[in-house]
Amino acid sequence: ELYWGQSEASNMQAKIALLGVLGTSQAFYLPGVAPVEYSDGARVDLKVNKLTSVKTQLPYDYYTLPFCKPVSVVQSVENLGEILAGDLIENSPYDLRMGDNQNCKLLCKQELKQADKDQFRARIDDEYMVNMIVDNLPAATKYIRRSDGNDYMYMNGFPIGVQKNNKYYIYNHLKFLLKYHSSDDFEGHRIVGFEVEPHSIVQATQSDPAQPNGLKAVCQEGAEATLMELDSYPEVTFTYDVTWEYSDIRWVSRWDNYLKMTGDKIHWFAILNSLMIMLFLSGMVAMILLRTLYRDITRYNELATAEEAAEETGWKLVHGDVFRKPRFGKLLAVSVGSGVQILGMSIVTLIFALLGFLSPAHRGGLLQSMMMLFTFMGVFGGYSSARLYKVFNGEDWKTNTLMTAMLYPGVIFLVFFVLNLFIWGQKSSGAVPFTTMFALLVLWFGISVPLVFLGSYFGFRREAIELPVRTNHVPRQIPSQAWFMQPMFTCAVGGVLPFGAVFTELFFIMSSLWQHQFYYLFGFLALVLVILLITCAEISIALTYFQLTAENYNWWWRSFMASASSAIYVFMYSIMYFSTRLSIDKLVSTLLYFGYMFILSLIFGLLTGSIGLTASFYFVRTIYGSIKVD
Question: Residue 440: CA atoms inside 13 Å, Cβ hemisphere, count?
Answer without folding.
Answer: 21
